[in-house]
UniProtKB/TrEMBL annotation:
It comes from Microbacterium foliorum. The keyword Amino-acid biosynthesis does not apply. GO terms for molecular function: sequence-specific DNA binding. Keywords: DNA-binding, Transcription, Transcription regulation. The keyword Transcription applies. InterPro entries: ArsR-like_HTH, AsnC-type_HTH_dom, Dimeric_a/b-barrel, Tscrpt_reg_AsnC-like, Tscrpt_reg_AsnC/Lrp_C, WH-like_DNA-bd_sf, WH_DNA-bd_sf. The lineage of its organism: Bacteria, Bacillati, Actinomycetota, Actinomycetes, Micrococcales. GO terms for cellular component: cytosol. GO terms for biological process: response to amino acid. Signal peptide: none annotated. This is Lrp/AsnC family transcriptional regulator.
Length: 173
């Protein structure tokens, strides 16, 4: 049963869980909070509350509910790879071999744990994974692919594209 609620109340389906989280219905206020935090995750609660038109205590409560419901999964720094010594960014598209198809989802955390891997995408289509990797230079990228992709017993053909520019998420405020 869903309770009738105001814009900033928490419409939660009582007693039901989906993948360990309460079923959560976003309000317009929640969407404004998410928009502001996606632009700048370091906003103080006071500043966030002012931007979305809430009392600071109400805003803090809504953010906590969004975190507890799994809508906000974390806060991260957006790092400039070149400034951090990883001048080469590449997307490595990989096909999983037939014998490993049933375990393709197991490969995602394995690939994600490799040094230099920024993101891993599980896809449908002729390639099964895209691995976003950042390395210091082209020889380091070549070595990454040779050791972690080319020699992996479950991975087949790969194709690598260099990233010239990468814009992340919502433009800064």
């Amino acid at each position: 049963m869903i309770r009738e609620v105001s814009e900033f109340s928490n419409p939660v389906r009582a007693g039901t869980r989906q993948r360990g989280m309460m079923m959560f219905m976003l309000t317009d206020g929640d969407r404004r909070i998410l928009h502001e935090l996606s632009r700048n995750g370091r906003l103080s609660n006071k500043e966030l509350a002012a931007r979305v038109g809430l009392a600071p205590s109400t805003c803090h409560g809504r953010v906590r509910l969004l975190e507890d419901a799994g809508v906000i999964r974390g806060y991260r720094a957006v790092v400039d790879p070149q400034a951090a010594g990883a001048a080469i960014n590449a997307l490595v598209s990989v096909a999983v071999l037939d014998h490993a198809r049933s375990q393709v989802t197991d490969l995602v955390p394995l690939m994600r744990a490799l040094p230099g891997v920024q993101q891993v995408f599980l896809l449908g289509g002729d390639r099964d994974l895209v691995i976003h990797v950042a390395t210091a230079d082209v020889p380091a990228l070549r070595e990454f692919i040779r050791i972690n992709v080319g020699a992996h017993p479950d991975l087949g053909q790969s194709q690598t594209q260099l990233v010239f520019e990468h814009a992340v998420g919502v433009a800064p405020a």
